[in-house]
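Incident review: delayed structure delivery

Summary: a single-chain prediction request sat in the queue longer than the usual turnaround. Root cause was a stuck worker, restarted by the on-call engineer. No data loss occurred. The affected request and its eventual output are reproduced below so the record is complete for anyone auditing the incident later.

Affected input:
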Amino acid sequence: MFPGGVTSMDDFLEKFFPLVYVKKHRAREDNYCKYDNKYLQLFTSSLYLAAILSSFAASFFCKLWGRKPTIQVASIFFLVGAILNAVAQNLGMLIAGRLCLGAGVGFGNQAVPLFISEIAPAKYRGGLNICFQLLITIGILIANIINYFTSNLHPYGWRISLGGAAGPAVILLLGSILISETPTSLIERGKIEKGLEVLRKIRGVDNVDKEYLEILNAIELAKQVKSPFRNLITKRSSWPQLFCGTILQIFQQFTGINVVMFYAPVLFQTMGLGGDASLLSAVVTDSINVAATLIAIFTVDRIGRRTLLIEAVIQMLIAQSVMGATLAKHLKATNVMPKHSAMVVLILICVFVSGFAWSWGPLGWLIPSEIFPLETRSAGFFFAVSMNMLCTFLIAQTFLSMLCHMRSGIFFFFAAWIVVMGLFAIFLLPETKGIPIDEMNEKVWKKHWLWKRCYKKETEENLEEKSLPLS
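Output delivered after worker restart:
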């Protein structure tokens, strides 16, 4: 899903993006504009455009048919997309493959976090949910390791890299056959005995009456909501979750992480490092990504979500600002950046990636998956997923042009966003650590200094409606 390594391979560029290949090898070409090409950006961003549309369909599929079948559909889309990319003969086939991968992302991101949040005990929910993000980071690392070795396999190395996505797709498909559907989804769809059986199985005890009654109560409330999407927008008590769930996705993408993760090899080549060195640098940053995500797994349910988010804001802001200043000083339009300065940037990228990977990266998915009540859970998570994909699409589609026009200033652009993110985490985001997923409204939102006003106002409006005389 992250094609940065492939987009730096000459064989790939020469076949599909010959203009970029020519610009890349011009001695006097502007360092910041070598990869500025709308078709190259479309290759990357098309995945996320497809994910936006497919996540809408997946939100209904997930509710009507369950989390497990939705994951299976995702794996099939991934498999088809990987095969199309591996055998692509023209740009049309290449983008068709990316669109299939995007559909897989839409279905997978809609179902997997919900699946984990619904089966996990409250005290372990954060760590288990972040395992989803951990496996993504491991996948990115493996992909860049493969890119490092296939970059020297001419002229078909890029086919191996892109086709490698078929491996995880097969694993996901086989794994989805073995898992059980969530008790909430089973009971919601009328399969009560099966739901109780699965609930006892995943909790390891026979007495699950308390949790079963909580699920039943949530389902009864959900049945009263005929239009979850309209309910999210028009009902005041849904606004806090909708706002926080979607704004987290905007902030996650506007940290500037995609500047690093999409185009890490491109950035290092821009700074004058060779092709192999740039791919190796990407492997280093991806290794940091995996290690930091592991830290998140073991800390999120102990120190809480907000603490991780606020600490990371400080860390990422410093790294982003110093990175921008270093590039502004040492990387001009046509020079080769001094190697010691390039190493400083690499270290700063690692600092930035580690902060993101134990905070805004995994928590951007965890928090929206646990804050919505059952009646709006699939619809609410659709808004979160689609907002994430929309912002990722915008960044992927515009980043290379932004880099060309803003140069090192692009880092300060994202640093400004990080400041806003910190204020949001401090003042507007409540802590959800250890709260049962079906008790969020009572224990979190109705007690928050700002969001409780939405519930109070809605209660007042309902009382006014009931007190109006019949005409």
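Verification: Residues 67 and 111 are 5 Å apart (CA to CA).
Action items: add queue-age alerting; document worker restart procedure.
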